[in-house]
Amino acid sequence: MYLFVTCLGVALFISKGFTLIELMVTIAVLAIIVTISVPSFSNMITHQNLKKSSSELIGVLNQARSKAVLERRSIEVVLKQKQDSIAQSDIDTKMYWMPHGSGYLQENQTPIHFGLNGAITNAVDDTLITICSQPKGKSQIIHISRMGSIQQVTEGVCK
Average pLDDT for consecutive 10-residue bins of the chain (159 residues)? Predict the structure, then answer.
């Protein structure tokens, strides 16, 4: 809407509002920005789920090891391959863990048993647990020694 005003013989147009073309250009620019940002936002969410899964697994393993030593009994940690809708509750001798979001374990892991002294009782060698974000995507590897100590997470690539 334009208002026509004359002031000292000079015609002035005063604009009140936006034109349809200005509105369409603004919407087009916003659409381009959203289109560019959506893939990086989904990558960020995937990476955060991977980090959350690995830090939560380290917490569960440390808690199980501490519980085994303090209560002087064997504690089992059951690792689920993928997230499912049925979350099982921990019991006295068994703890459960599953990855978040689209994350999954690269190999099917056997349950981990922490003995009375905090060591892993069912392992012949050190245990590696690989959590993947997506096929051929980033992974986080958690290293557990036979004595039960949990090493820092290293990053890798899934198969």
Answer: 54 69 93 87 86 91 93 90 70 86 82 90 85 85 89 81
C-alpha distances in Å from residue 128, one per residue of 3, 35, 40, 109, 123: 74, 39, 30, 9, 11
Q: From CA 57, how far away is CA 153, in angstroms rounded?
A: 11
Phi first, then psi: what are they for 97, rounded to 5°? -145, 145
**β partners of residue 82:** 104
CB 86 within 8 A of CB 39: no
Count of C-beta atoms within a 10 Å radius of residue 99: 23
Cα dihedral value 102, 88, 117, 70, nearest 10: 120
Q: What is the pLDDT of residue 62?
A: 93
Distance CA 90, CA 101 (A): 21
